[in-house]
Amino acid sequence: MVNRICKQSDELEAQVRELACPRCSILVYDTGSPDSKAQMQAKAAGYGIESWPAVTLDGKAVSPEQLKEGNVAQIVRKLFHE
Hints:
- It is a single chain.
- The strands form two sheets. A two-stranded parallel sheet has the order 1-2. It has a two-stranded antiparallel sheet with strand order 3-4.
- It is α+β, with helices and mostly antiparallel strands.
- The chain has helices at 7-19, 34-47, 64-68, 72-81; strands at residues 2-4, 28-30, 56-57, 60-61.
């Protein structure tokens, strides 16, 4: 789940798509869409997400610290390719 609210979100989405394998499912919530926004907020609450952009992998929220540290590649590979 990637929240599209800024250029940073778009860059993060592109990075996740690049790292994901062909079997991986990627779902993007666009806050510009009322339907998507409501669904995204409900999902975010369930994952405990409080800041954006946000990513969940294999049903687990990636911490903002991990995103800031640029560990997305390592996290994606660990969850989807091992």
